[in-house]
Write a structure and sequence with these properties.
Largest sheet: 7 strands, mixed
Number of helices: 14
Order of helices and strands: EEHHEHEHEEEEHHEHEHHHHHHH
Radius of gyration: 22 Å
Shape: globular
Helix content: 25-40%
Distance between the termini: 46 Å
Length: 430
C-alpha cells in the first residue's frame, strides 16, 4: 500500500502517503503490512497554493520553491501535480515581472513550474480527483492525476489561509484532530495547533525594499530551507519535524499526526535525494542553516500589511494612493462587519453572557472539531447568504459555527439569528 506525507501550512500542511493501491478511499487508506513498508515505488507529489491576489504572494512562492526541491530530488514533471492561481508572477504589482522569490536572497523559483490547475480550476473537487486518480471527475486543467500503484509514495503540500476544520487552515491542526487514524500509512505535519494561527515570513522590512508583501510562510520556508541545505537521504522526517518545530516555537506550535512510525523514514523516500554542496554527512538536531527569523507577521494580518504599505507608498494626490486607501478601508470594514456579525449571532443564540464562551470553546484533544460536518457547511452557507462572504479573514470563525452545531443549533435558528444580526448590512458590503 502506498504511503502519504501531508504538510499543511497556514494552512500549511504536509501529508505523506506510503504505498497506495488504486480504488476508493477505504482502499486508498488501509492498514499496511511490514513487508509493504520496505518497498519503494514511484514518488508522486501534489502541491497546492489555495489563495490568489498579490497580497497572498507567499503561498504561490512557497509552492514554486517546493517544486524546485522535488525536481532537485529527481522527481519528474509527470509525477508532480501543481495547483496555483498563477496570478502573481505577471501581476502589475510585481516589482520583478515574471519572477517569484521565496526569501530575500532567493533566485527565481517560478520559471519552469508546471501549471496543471490554475485560476478557477484550483478547487477541492479537482484536488480530490487528482489525489484519487479519477480523471473523469476533473473539470479543466492539464488532466494530470496521481496514477498510483501498490508501492508508491505520495507527498502532498498545501499552503493557504483558513480556519478550524477547513482544508485551508491557519488553525491547521483542526483538520486532523480526532480524524486521522494511526494505521493507514499517512503521516501529516501542520504549521500550528488547533487554536492558533501560523505566521508569514520575510515581510516588508526583511524582504527587498521594493516588495510590499510577505515572500513566504514561517513553517514552509523552515522545512524548505532545511531541505535545501541537506542531503534528504541523511535526514529523517522526525528530525526535520523537530528542527522546524524549534525554529517556529516562538510563534506557533508545529504538530504531527497519523502514522508516527513513518517519521523514522528518510525525507528522500518522498522528496527524492538531493545532495547540496554544503550539506553535512550527519545532520544534528540543531542546525545553523535554520537561522532565527526576524519578527514575523500573523497570517491573518499579512494582507492588511500589504494594503497598508501600498497605501503609504504613493505620493499624496496620486490616483494609486486614493485607490490604495479605498482598498485598505474596505479590508478593515469587512473585518469589523464579520466580527460584529458573529458576535451578534452568538448573543442571539446563547445570550450575551455566555455567547462568547460557547463560540470560542475548544473541544478536548482527540475529538474532532464538529460531530456533523454537513451541519457545519450549512451554518457557513446560512451566514454567507444573509451576511455576505466570510472571505479569508472570516474563516477564523469556523470554530464558532462548529460550536453552534455541537450545541444543537439547527439551520433555521441560525438563519433567523443571521438575518437579524446582518439586517443593516448587505452581502456586497462584505
Amino acid at each position: 500500500m502506498a504511503r502519504l506525507y501531508l504538510a499543511v501550512i497556514a494552512v500549511q500542511l504536509l501529508l505523506l502517503v506510503a504505498g497506495v493501491a488504486g480504488g476508493p478511499w477505504q482502499e486508498f487508506f488501509r492498514p499496511q503490512s511490514e513487508m509493504e513498508r520496505d518497498v519503494i515505488g514511484t514518488r508522486w507529489a501534489v502541491l497546492i497554493a489555495g489563495s490568489n491576489g498579490f497580497e497572498n504572494y507567499r503561498h504561490q512562492a512557497d509552492v514554486c520553491h517546493a517544486y524546485r526541491i522535488l525536481k532537485k530530488g529527481g522527481l519528474r514533471d509527470e509525477n508532480i501535480v501543481v495547483f496555483m492561481y498563477d496570478d502573481i508572477a505577471n501581476n502589475s504589482a510585481n516589482p520583478r515581472p515574471g519572477v517569484i522569490i521565496n526569501n530575500p536572497n532567493s533566485s527565481d523559483v517560478y520559471a519552469g513550474v508546471p501549471k496543471d490547475y490554475t485560476g478557477k480550476d484550483v478547487n477541492v473537487k479537482n484536488f480530490l480527483a487528482v489525489l484519487l486518480g479519477d480523471k473523469s471527475a476533473l473539470t479543466g486543467g492539464s488532466g494530470k492525476v496521481v496514477n498510483r500503484s501498490q508501492d508508491d509514495h505520495i507527498f502532498v503540500y498545501y499552503t493557504d489561509h483558513g480556519g478550524p476544520g477547513m482544508l485551508e487552515a491557519c488553525e491547521s491542526e483542526s483538520i486532523f484532530e480526532g480524524l486521522l487514524p494511526a494505521n493507514i500509512s499517512v503521516y501529516a505535519t501542520t504549521a500550528s495547533n488547533a487554536i492558533e494561527s501560523s505566521w508569514a515570513a520575510y515581510c516588508p522590512g526583511e524582504a527587498p525594499p521594493e516588495f510590499m508583501t510577505c515572500l513566504g510562510d514561517l513553517y514552509s520556508v523552515s522545512w524548505m530551507e532545511d531541505s535545501d541545505a541537506h542531503n534528504l537521504g541523511n535526514e529523517s522526517l522526525e528530525l526535520q519535524y523537530n528542527k522546524v518545530k524549534n525554529r517556529t516555537l516562538s510563534w506557533s506550535h508545529v504538530m504531527q499526526y497519523g502514522d508516527l512510525g513513518l517519521n523514522a523514514e528518510n525525507l528522500s523516500l518522498f522528496m527524492g535525494s538531493s545532495d547540496p554542496a554544503n550539506h553535512s554527512a550527519t545532520v544534528g538536531s540543531t542546525d545553523i542553516s535554520l537561522r532565527q527569523l526576524s519578527p514575523t507577521v500573523h497570517q491573518r494580518d499579512a494582507d492588511l500589511l500589504y494594503f497598508w504599505h501600498k497605501y503609504r507608498k504613493p505620493y499624496e494626490g496620486m490616483p494609486e494612493k486614493s485607490e490604495a486607501r479605498k482598498q485598505l478601508l474596505e479590508v478593515l470594514a469587512h473585518r469589523s462587519r464579520v466580527d460584529n456579525g458573529i458576535e451578534l449571532i452568538g448573543g442571539s443564540l446563547f445570550g450575551t453572557e455566555i455567547g462568547p464562551q460557547v463560540l470560542n470553546a475548544v473541544r478536548p484533544a482527540g475529538q474532532p472539531l464538529v460531530d456533523d460536518w454537513d451541519c457545519l457547511k450549512s451554518m457557513v452557507r446560512g451566514f454567507e447568504e444573509q451576511c455576505g462572504l466570510l472571505g479569508q479573514y472570516g474563516m477564523k470563525h469556523t470554530r464558532a459555527f462548529a460550536n453552534m452545531c455541537n450545541a444543537g443549533i439547527g439551520a433555521e435558528a441560525m438563519h433567523k439569528a443571521a438575518t437579524k444580526a446582518c439586517a443593516t448590512a448587505t452581502p456586497s458590503a462584505f
